Amino acid sequence: MKKLRRLVSLVLVALALVTNLSACAGGSEQKGEDIVVLFTNDVHCAIEDNITLAGVAYYKKLMEEKSKYVTLVDCGDAVQGSYLGCISRGEVLIKAMNAVGYDFAILGNHEFDYATERLKELMDMAEFKYINSNITYTGSGSNALAKAEPYTIVEYGKTKVAYLGVTTPWTISSSTPAYFMEDGVYVYDFAAGNEGKDLYAKVQGYVDEVRAKGADYVVCLAHLGTEEGTSPYMSTDLIANTTGIDVVLDGHSHSVFEMYNVENKDGKNVICAQTGTKLENLGMLVIGEGGVITVSNINDIKKQDEEALASVNGLLSQYQEMLNTVVAHSNVALSTSDENGIRAVRNRETAIGDLVADAYREVFKTDIAYVNGGGVRADLPEGDITYSDIISVNPFGNMICVVEVTGAEILDMLEYFVSKAQSETVDLEAGKALGESGSFPCMSGIKFTVNTTIPSPAVVDENDNLLYVEGERRVSDVTILQDGKYVPIDTAKTYTLASHNYLIQNGGNGMMFFLAFHNILVDCGMADYQAVITYLTDFLKGDLSGYTNLENRITFIR
User: What CATH number should be reported for the domain holding residue 301?
Assistant: First the structure.
């Protein structure tokens, strides 16, 4: 059925282009009147990957030769994901998107990774418009997101198309909670809570508003995704609980689908589409003659726009010499994925997760260290390891902190960190990981057992922040490395924990309770990627053979 739907969609697109753009044939300069909306999502700094940004620019110009009406949009998570974003704090991506000719973009959760004030600066750099409908500022200071309008309406001849932006409410917990606060109080409201009803109502209000202003079509640019763990804020949830939206161009879950029909609140079909990640595809929405809507994913773009390519290369050259510096030489490769190529770092122990956690603990001489699986973003190759390789592993530019915690607090944290773990870790038939969580622990200096047959006792608030632990515990047999031996954890004892400011100072991964009362011994002492570089060069001398096999720091009872 998927292949048939794919074939039908491509045939419809081809027919639309032949019928309405045929005036271009034979050297005629007359252009068709199809509305062509090109879209990307979850680019994650992959300027040169797959079809490339310069390839996107080429295809946009190709469509502009055929149609009067061409628009290029992005559905979030563009400015973070590799060393390019980290070193430039997003600037390289914004300037590259300017060169390509984007018209509109929305805010993904990772647009916030450099803090809201930096996001304001990036939005000011952008020559395209940011739109968002579900974030409200309630503070008394300055709204860093004031430039992002809820929607924009574009007139293509006699046809009006409204573009409406929606960002996942999970952003507050998946990004850095402290960024959304003033004096410890949340001042950015993502329409979260009330089992999704607040989000649906907020979006519905703007859909009704643009319809009242004469919009013939409503295209929702969303960063919501379709992973069940993000319910009730999935794009499919939004469609099922609203009316008046024609198409949802989605992001966040890195899925690849096109012409996926979802029934809205009135039982009418709404098209949902997503292009994957890192420019695997360029999406193309076509509103053709008679209002026929088709969506397809394009991945066979072989050419690049020379002007855009020159701009991109100019941006990259500013950082290339430093990034190519070799900092270590490894005799083994370490991967975030399992032997089947399925991402593993967010649902079980991995050697690369162990390595990063060990780097934090060894460099800062603490009892234990914690790294969130969602923060370990790339593999390390066998052979030469460059500065860019390390930054790609830890691309967020977080700073290492050391804090004092009690044994009892460690036990509660562990319950939260493994709360989504399942008895099975992968679905090979579907080709995806199970029980993934960005907070899944990569640990050093500690071992423990998780019984996945016990429901998680971690109680969280509406923003997925840990409140307390109640009921039978999943985590048992917790031991701490002391003087070369693992000994049972002492709930009354105080231990030193190395992690990063995302967790300790900004309340990331649901750890808001850190902001209130913990004694910080090291306040942002070193960038996370620099700690890994130091560990590789000064401690391991480039020899990673000790990470060939896992140490079973986390044992599962399934």
Answer: 3.60.21.10
